[in-house]
Amino acid sequence: MDYRLLGRSGLKVSSLSIGTATFGGDGLWGDTDLKEAQRQIDLCLDHGINLIDTANVYSKTVSETIIGEALTDGRRDRVLIATKVRFPTGKGPNDRGLSRWHIIREAEASLKRLKTDVIDLYQVHEWDGQTPLEETIEALDTLVKQGKVRYVGCSNYSAWHLMKALAVSDAKNYQRFVSQQIHYTLYSREAEYELVPLGLDQGVSALIWSPLAGGWLTGKYTRNSKPTDGRQVRGFKEPPIDNPEHLWDIVDVINEIASAHGVSGAQVSLAWLLQRPLVASVIIGGRNIAQFEDNLKAIDLKLTPEDIAKLDKVSQPPLIYPYWHQNFTAQDRMGAADLALHKPIWLSDIAADGPGRPSAQS
């Protein structure tokens, strides 16, 4: 297993981590019970994974409860626990959001369910535009000072949300976000516009949720073999697939590379992410042991430069403004963070579709 520093901290996390949205569950995400959860956790720990990710709203708190029950017999000492706060946990007006009241109450409730004295990484699960950031960051800082939380991170923030939060932390000398948990896949590369460059510049690592796009990037489904059951066909909109033909073009390349290496399509999709800049850990989940066993093999798959070039070419999003303009006019003065977006798609090397717009397939 590979271990990577989490942001500007001294904490090292495994490059693959355990996702637990299926723990408990109602069948849509999964319905993993305590016995199966413990089997999955043991398998991952034996492969060197040291980070388990959950949230207080996963399976209406059941995920946290199962984790607390599963981390017995010394398992807790072998793993870092990350959980989240933001979404509704009741019907009251203060039972949601990132107010001091909600954050501290929910942290204490999570600690009880997880049967632990400290949360290793406490993440705000989404943006709250009604609570001043000073209040949110101060509440998180208080939890760290109290010894209830060790590190703090965010999830699903836009770039300006994250940059403003960092500015508040720096100005007030509060704990800084060390990580951003984001959706980032071969199909969904929007994070490369701003979140990845910002993270590189400010030292905020990326933890990747749903790296297989809810199953669409496993290679199991193609344009000629689409799912007939499961959440993909039950109206589940996360992540949204608004361009199916583009998805199938990507899957075709995934399966071509998988066949050449003798591996699964899922391993190719995960390996591509593991070789991206800023990525500290890719969160893997599964309904059963077999899915975890397959995903764990991605750590040993080293894609060739030719493989990566093929995957980049078929999945590269178009440069939106102001990035196409920067690409035309600022190539002589770009820094490392800029190049995370621009270097793979210099417009001088590719054809453009209209004035200043690179092809979505370039």
Describe the 3D structure.
There is one protein chain. The protein has 362 residues and is of the alpha/beta class. The chain has 2 domains: 3-305, NADP-dependent oxidoreductase domain (TIM Barrel, Alpha-Beta Barrel), CATH 3.20.20; 316-362, no CATH class. It is built from 12 helices and 10 strands. The strands form 2 sheets. An 8-stranded parallel beta barrel has the order 3-4-5-6-7-8-9-10, surrounded by 6 helices. Helix 4 (133-145) packs across helix 5 (159-172). The protein is globular. Mean pLDDT is 92; it is low at 350-362.
SSE diagram, text form:
Blueprint: E1 3-5, E2 12-14, E3 16-19, H1 34-46, E4 51-53, H2 62-70, E5 80-85, H3 100-114, E6 119-124, H4 133-145, E7 149-155, H5 159-172, E8 177-183, H6 195-202, E9 205-209, H7 244-261, H8 265-274, E10 279-284, H9 289-296, H10 305-315, H11 323-329, H12 336-342
Parallel strand pairs: 3-4, 3-10, 4-5, 5-6, 6-7, 7-8, 8-9, 9-10
Antiparallel strand pairs: 1-2
Helix pairs in contact: 1-2, 1-9, 2-3, 3-4, 4-5, 6-12, 7-8, 7-10
Percent strand: 5-15%
Estimated radius of gyration: 20 Å
Overall mean pLDDT stands at 92
Number of domains: 2
Portion of residues in helices?
25-40%
Number of strands: 10
Low-confidence sequence ranges: 350-362
CATH superfamily of the largest domain: NADP-dependent oxidoreductase domain
The oligomeric state of the chains shown is: single chain
Q: Structural class, from helix and strand content?
A: alpha/beta
Q: So what's the CATH class of the largest domain?
A: Alpha Beta
